[in-house]
Design goal:
alpha/beta, seven-stranded mixed sheet, two-stranded parallel ribbon, 6 helices, binds NADP nicotinamide-adenine-dinucleotide phosphate
């Protein structure tokens, strides 16, 4: 689901081109690590925003630059970004808007963006498009992602595997934050090959 969200965001809602600059907020998490890789695969220059502990991991995923949000405010990069992929979401005015060039896009997927329930596009006075998206099931998109994974072009990094019967633990792990990659609920061991 995390990869599908980012895939649909980049392919359907933005016009990301090679050479453009992408800033991924929450770059080490489930959606974030896919966003970094998919943006890199499209030839973008990628800035990853995460806490400092993730720097080595983010470099492995392919980021060109890291910002540790615990010490540095991302707005300090200036208006150099074409696309922000915000997997964290910020209530009210989003400070990441200050990093975008005129004509840029903020792709807003983080939970907090969904509070008002509005999915769609808004335009700010600074000529920036804000795309709030919601993932939906799509077999063709999943097939395209599987192809990338099978070919070794997209890595799926697993933070934690939890048996379905202990799903509560997965929620607790998610709420504790600082994930690196995705969490997996083990539903059918043999079928998933997660032994
Ligand atoms: N719109 C949709 O259709 C859709 C689909 C899937 C998920 N979502 C939502 O998207 C959000 C992210 O999901 P996820 O699975 O990627 O979550 P996740 O795996 O928990 O990742 C969140 C990441 O953000 C980092 N982070 C936390 N606070 C931050 C901050 N202030 N600035 C920058 N990074 C920060 C965390 O680690 P560090 O703090 O250690 O850096 C973590 O690596 C969730 O709210 C989820 O509900 C929406």
């Amino acid at each position: 689901m995390a990869a599908l969200t980012v895939w649909q965001g980049i392919v359907e809602h933005t016009k990301l081109r090679a050479g453009q600059t992408v800033l991924v907020n929450g770059a080490a998490g489930g959606t974030g690590h896919f966003a970094v890789q998919l943006a890199k695969a499209r030839g973008a220059h990628v800035i990853g925003v995460a806490s400092g502990r993730h720097e080595a991991f983010l470099r492995e995923m392919g980021v060109d630059a890291c910002i540790d949000y615990t010490t540095t405010s991302p707005e300090h990069v200036g208006r150099v970004v074409d696309l922000v992929i915000d997997t964290v979401g910020t209530m009210g005015e989003n400070p990441l808007l200050m990093t975008l060039k005129r004509g840029g896009t903020l792709l807003w997927i983080g939970r907090r963006s969904m509070n008002n329930g509005i999915i769609g596009t808004e335009h700010t006075e600074a000529g920036i498009a804000i795309e709030k998206i919601q993932v939906r099931s799509n077999g063709a998109h999943l097939a395209a992602l599987s192809e990338q994974i099978d070919a070794g072009r997209l890595r799926v990094v697993v933070d934690t595997v939890v048996p379905l019967a202990e799903a509560r633990k997965a929620h607790e792990r998610g709420e504790a934050g600082h994930l690196q990659g995705i969490m997996v609920l083990r539903v059918a061991e043999e079928a998933c090959g997660l032994t």
